[in-house]
Amino acid sequence: MTGYLTLEIKRMLRTPRFVLFAIALPTLLYLLQSGLYKDESVPGTDVKYKAYLLCGLAAYGAFVSALSTGIRIAAERSGGWQAQLRLTPLSPKAYLLSKVVVSMIVALPAPIIVAMAGGFIENVHLSAGAWVQLTLGTWLASLPFAVLGVLLGLLASADSVQIYTAGVQLGFGFLSGLLIPLTGFPSWVASAVKAIPSYWLADIGHGALLGNNNTALAVLVLGAWTVALSALVVFSYRREAALA
Amino acid sequence: MAVIEVRNLHKRYGETVAVDDVSFSVERGEIFGILGPNGAGKTTTVECIEGLRSPDGGTVRVLGFEPREDQLRQLVGAQLQESALPEKLEVREALELYASFYRNPADPDALLAELGMTGHQHKPYKKLSGGQKQRLSIALALIGNPEIAVLDELTTGLDPQARRDTWDLVEAIRDRGVTVVLVTHFMAEAERLCDRIAVIDSGRVVAVDTPGGLVDRVSADTTLRFRPSAPFDDHLLTDLPEVREVRRHNSQVTVTGSGNLLHAVAAVLARHQIVAADLRVEQASLDDAFVALTGRAFDN
């Protein structure tokens, strides 16, 4: 597995364009919105918007990056590279795990850079623990999206995978309030979006800021998503072989 | 000893029957050809052997294993009809990656040298020529030191020189003791390389034999064409037991017969001091064998 994983990491470093976009968009959106909110606080709290916005956009950057591996997998399926690897002793487990690991590596820079924009440009002050939870916590919590990316890559064709991925990115991004805060929306909307995993991803960061005790629940929900999506990944990979 | 056994293989894609009823066995150490026109079911057959496809009926055993068993991946090297490595993957990276998969890999450097690829080891896949890509896929099929190598349409799209070079490589693989299954739609390739050939047409095996055996099934006839340096009487030749027919067209003489026809005719002409200019010898080819076996022309 290490041989394959090493190569996958090398390949990922050669085509950084997906990651660059996934870093640039949330960073720019953050700077734009924190400029609009100036020094306003989130209603009912003393948390400034410029800090609160970091959580959603760090989460957005992390999960959009994590998803991007799916585009590559779909291309490898249609191009025949995956079939070629199936002929080798590389196990399905090693193949799929390597893809998830690479997705996680890709997901690491975005939350850190968004957080740096907050700390250095917008002068957000947080405790060290809060910064770690916001960056590394958000990164680790993007695991279900890494798995979801692999799943999309296994299900979609090379032509359609971009559309599905973009759909998931924007759908999850807006509905769970990552791209724009849901604080102004009616409360039933805020309740409904709790079904979406990206809501809980942002909640990892929110937990760091608001000091609420939702974090355990968020970890539980994201863990359940990871398990369910992993099962679907294994099922899809096997089904493709069985139907061939 | 048979290393591959295929019995009554059947495979359909939706309504289309790709492989109808295919049976053959491959012996250890031979180059076994699977020959047929495009769409005959050759690739589907070997993909069932490789474990890439699951048959709808029949049995396939490779070295005693079911095609999808994990142990087999160490023992079979395969080159796909359309190899598709990632564009930016370099030759050496690909080889080292494949070497990492196997318990007992060949030395990448030695293999690169043997395939004449040493100078291209840092080229990305997309910059390789057709012949270089094929050589790389042969290298990838061999890096695990397999017992069986499956090569699918290895020389399609290559120029004649690259094709001949590739043929030499395939013979070298067999000489290493590797059993080779060679899928091809080129008659000349099958005739030149294969110890035995399964001729497949419309998803069925129409014959399994040596190239010579297949040709002999059709006709043992030989045809000679030449321009005699001096006039002679047809009886000189028709009296020979080997000659069945003599025809003349303008200055050209066409002699059809069997047995050691060339030797018999040449001896008589020499005795009468007649030189046979532009002499051509035509024997039944694998093409003729295919027409005779399937009732239609080999059509690509």
Keywords:
heterodimer, A: 244 residues, mainly alpha, 78% helix, B: 300 residues, alpha/beta, Rossmann fold, Alpha-Beta Plaits, 6-stranded mixed beta sheet, 11 helices, 30% strand, antibiotic resistance (chain B), ABC-2 type transport system ATP-binding protein (chain B), ATP binding (chain B)
Describe it for me?
The complex is a heterodimer of chains A (244) and B (300). By secondary structure, chain A is mainly alpha-helical. Chain A contains 13 helices and no strands. Chain A has one domain. In chain A, helix 1 packs parallel to helix 6. Chain B is an alpha/beta fold and 300 residues long. Chain B has 2 domains: 215 residues, Rossmann fold (3-Layer(aba) Sandwich), CATH 3.40.50.300; 64 residues, ACT domain (Alpha-Beta Plaits, 2-Layer Sandwich). Helix content of chain B is 33%, strand content 30%. In chain B, the strands form 3 sheets. A 6-stranded mixed sheet of chain B has the order 5-6-7-3-8-9, with helices on both faces. The radius of gyration of chain B is 24 Å and the shape is elongated. Chains A and B meet through helix 1, helix 5 and helix 13 of A and helix 3 of B. Chain A: This is Transport permease protein.
Q: Helix and strand string of chain A, N-terminal first?
A: HHHHHHHHHHHHH
CATH topology of the largest domain in chain B: Rossmann fold
Shape of chain A: elongated
Distance between the termini of chain B: 34 Å
The greatest interface here is: A-B, 24 and 29 residues
Q: For the record, what is the CATH homologous superfamily label of the largest domain in chain B?
A: P-loop containing nucleotide triphosphate hydrolases
Average pLDDT for all residues of chain A: 90
Strand order of the largest sheet of chain B: 5-6-7-3-8-9
- Oligomeric state of the chains in view: heterodimer
Task: Provide the helix percentage of chain B.
Answer: 25-40%
Give the C-alpha Rg of chain B: 24 Å
For the sheet with most strands of chain A, the description reads: none
Low-confidence stretches of chain A: none
